[in-house]
Automatic annotation (TrEMBL):
InterPro entries: DUF4112. It comes from Wickerhamomyces mucosus. Residues 215-224 have a biased composition (Low complexity). This is Uncharacterized protein. Keywords: Membrane, Transmembrane, Transmembrane helix. The chain crosses the membrane at residues 133-152. Residues 211-234 are annotated as: Disordered.
Length: 234
């Protein structure tokens, strides 16, 4: 395991490594898109879709509310999650003449309200979600067949997927920024002008010192000041 950490630290020290990782993360963030907000397949097993574990508890709770709301609107008009009846509240409301579309709008708006108040989603995302609602109401206007179109469209499911995509991308950006700050701190701590191999050894010893505070920080020269700094972090 220590050998793997050594190689990992050596890889981090290669010229351009940080830029390459940032470029990959940006590309992954740009192309990531949630299709199914309810489930995800991991190692051949179907599991409930969650937000990243690094998200705040408030975000995790808000996501559960959004997911249950979308389930009520599109999958189970009784709201019993995760029992799938294949028919939600929105298609039923679309059967009502005139007032049905008003009730549909109010039903779909509930999901946007949760996302706005508890997740503070940007205006651009809100506009996309409102556009989905308008489209869903328009296709529901034809009698009878409009309800079929609404059922197939699954507006709240689409909006929940948009919210999940936004959360994952924002969390990816936050983690990338955190790694940049962490790398900057490590470089400032151990100096840019040290020979490359010395920086590798220094960072490895530094991590071992944090993991085992009872061991002294061993390095020639400025060892006392570095040991005090490591003790303060522990």
């Amino acid at each position: 395991m220590n050998q793997i950490d050594t190689y990992a630290n050596k890889l981090e020290g290669l010229p351009g490594y940080g830029l390459a990782i940032d470029w990959i993360n940006d590309k992954l963030g740009d192309h990531f898109e949630t299709k199914d907000p309810f489930y995800v397949e991991i190692n051949g097993k179907r599991k409930k879709r969650k937000v990243p574990e690094t998200c705040t508890k408030e975000t995790q709770k808000a996501w559960k509310k959004i997911k249950k709301r979308a389930w009520l609107d599109d999958r189970n008009f009784f709201g019993c999650y995760p029992i799938d009846l294949g028919f939600g509240l929105a298609p039923l409301l679309s059967l009502l003449p005139v007032i049905g579309q008003i009730l549909m709008w109010a039903t779909h708006m509930r999901l946007i309200t949760i996302a706005t108040q508890q997740m503070h989603i940007p205006n651009s995302l809100q506009a996309k979600m409102h556009a989905n609602i308008v489209f869903d109401i328009l296709i529901s206007l034809p009698p009878i067949i409009g309800s079929l179109f609404t059922w197939l469209n699954a507006c709240s499911t689409r909006n929940a997927a948009l919210v999940h995509t936004y959360i994952v991308k924002e969390e990816l950006k936050r983690q990338t920024q955190f790694e940049k700050i962490e790398n900057q701190f490590a470089n400032e701590q151990f100096g840019y002008h040290q020979p490359q191999q010395e920086r590798f050894n220094d960072r490895i010893n530094y991590k071992e010192r944090l993991a085992k505070p009872e061991q002294s920080y061993q390095r020639s020269g400025d060892s006392s000041s570095r040991s005090k700094h490591a003790d303060s972090l522990v």
